TrEMBL record:
SUPFAM superfamilies, per database record: Phosphoglycerate mutase-like
Protein name: Histidine phosphatase family protein
Top-level taxon of the source organism: Bacteria
InterPro entries linked to this entry: His_Pase_superF_clade-1 (IPR013078), His_PPase_superfam (IPR029033)
C-alpha cells in the first residue's frame, strides 16, 4: 500500500517521466530489454584510489540520484511494467540505482556492464552484453543498468542519467525503440 501511495505521488509530482505511451505499452507487454544509465551521480570519473569493492572510493549517487532511482521503480510499478531481472555493473552507482529502483532480490551483478578498461576490453564486453541481450526470451522485462560509455558502445547514442532506453533487437544490431526520461 505504501509503495502504491509513493508511486501515485511520483506520477503526479512536478517531475513527470517523459516517454511516449507506446514506450510504456512496450514495457507493459513485457519481453523487452532496457538499457538504463545509472541515476544522478555528481562529478566525472572515479578517484585515483578507486576500488570496485569499496563504495567510498567511487563516485556515488547523490541524494537526488537515490530519489530518482526510487522514483524510477515506483513509476515502472505504477505503469504495470513487469520486471523479470535486473543486471547491473559492479560499480556502486549502478548497483545502487538498480536496488533502489527494483529491490535487491532482482539485481544481479554483470561485470560486462562495468566501465571498460580499454578499447579491447570494451569489444569483449560488448560482445558478452550482445549475447545476453540476444538470448533473452523472458516474459517480463530485462533491465541492464550501466554507464554512458557502455550505452554509447552498444547503440551509438547518448543517454541522460536515469534514462531508460527500450531496445529493438536485430540479429547483430540494436536500435532505440523508445526512451523514458526520469528527471
Amino acid at each position: 500500500m505504501l509503495r502504491l501511495l509513493v508511486a501515485i505521488t511520483f506520477l503526479f509530482g512536478v517531475l513527470p517521466a517523459q516517454a511516449t505511451e507506446a514506450g510504456w505499452a512496450l514495457l507493459r507487454n513485457g519481453g523487452q530489454v532496457v538499457l538504463m544509465r545509472h541515476a544522478i551521480a555528481p562529478g566525472n570519473g572515479d578517484p585515483a584510489n578507486f576500488d570496485i569493492e569499496k563504495c567510498g572510493t567511487q563516485r556515488n549517487l547523490s541524494e537526488r540520484g537515490r530519489l530518482q532511482a526510487r522514483r524510477i521503480g515506483a513509476l515502472v510499478e505504477a505503469r504495470a511494467a513487469p520486471v523479470e531481472k535486473v543486471l547491473a555493473s559492479r560499480y556502486c552507482r549502478t548497483r545502487d540505482t538498480a536496488t533502489q529502483a527494483f529491490g535487491a532480490g532482482l539485481v544481479e551483478a554483470f561485470p560486462a556492464l562495468d566501465l571498460p578498461l580499454n578499447e579491447s576490453t570494451m569489444e569483449a564486453q560488448t560482445a558478452e552484453i550482445m549475447e545476453r541481450i540476444n538470448d533473452y526470451t523472458g516474459s517480463g522485462n530485462l533491465f541492464l543498468v550501466t554507464h554512458l560509455e557502455v550505452i554509447e558502445a552498444l547503440i551509438g547514442a547518448s543517454a541522460r542519467e536515469g534514462e531508460a532506453i527500450i531496445l529493438s533487437r536485430g540479429a547483430d544490431s540494436l536500435a532505440v525503440a523508445a526512451r523514458i526520461k526520469f528527471n
